[in-house]
Specification:
With 232 residues, this protein is of the alpha/beta class. Helix content is 34%, strand content 25%.
């Protein structure tokens, strides 16, 4: 009897497991097609509209709740360069839930794009974003955007004691830096020992020429030793 009872228990357990697996498989096969829900928090109205419209075009091919390809949906969202981070999850009540975090622009890159603090260049969801803030304008090759951003931060830090901030910064194909400050003063420096030359300019302006900064039009630091000044 004990052996018979033990075997019976095992049989019942196996039957229950098989029954649960069968129910689960049936639910998987018969799961209804799910909606795609774009979470609006953190997105502007235009950003949410663009993502929502894009996802609705994918709706007919999204598949059922369990069969939906979350990675493919994520890839579609990240194709928008203004999207910084995105998560795609299944939610039994809402369906496929998308949460996207947009990039935060710190400067304008050229005339049609923005750039974040890490030097990631992107096209904004709304063209009006290009002029919505008094952004510093940066110009150069897209693959040099991170270098240009570091240079911007470096220059702004050096010239902060003079209440000067970069208004425009251009890195030419010959690696020449053209820098315009909010005071109107311009600095030109080449790609050789650039950081040291800019520091030298800042030090001289803060010390020997502190009373004459407003009289300076252009500083040309493309010399191995020293720099030249064009006065107003």
């Amino acid at each position: 009897m004990p052996q018979f009872a033990t075997r019976l228990v095992y049989v019942l357990i196996i039957a229950m497991i098989a029954f649960c697996l069968g129910i689960g498989y049936k639910l998987y096969q018969q799961a209804p097609k799910m909606n795609i829900y774009v979470y609006p928090a953190g997105l502007s109205q235009s950003q949410h509209h663009i993502l929502n419209t894009k996802m609705q075009t994918k709706q007919p091919n999204i598949g059922s709740f369990f069969k939906a390809d979350l990675q493919a949906i994520r890839d579609d969202v990240t194709n928008f360069t203004w999207v910084d981070e995105v998560s795609v999850n299944r939610d039994w009540r809402r369906g496929i839930v998308i949460k996207a975090i947009p990039r935060q622009a710190v400067a304008r890159f050229g005339s049609e794009r923005l750039v974040d603090a890490e030097g990631k260049v992107f096209v904004p969801a709304n063209e009006a974003s290009l002029t919505s803030k008094p952004y510093t304008t940066l110009q150069g090759e897209s693959d040099q955007a991170a270098t240009i951003m570091l240079q911007l931060q470096y220059v702004n830090t050096l010239f902060q004691p003079l209440n000067m901030q970069v208004e425009d910064m251009i890195l030419t194909s010959r690696q020449t830096w053209l820098i315009k400050f909010n005071t109107g003063m311009r600095v030109v420096v080449d790609g050789e020992n650039t950081a040291q030359k800019i520091m030298n300019v800042s030090n001289v302006l803060q010390n020997q020429l502190v009373d004459k900064v407003s009289d300076i039009k252009v500083i040309d630091a493309r010399y191995k030793n020293g720099f030249s000044i064009t006065w107003h």
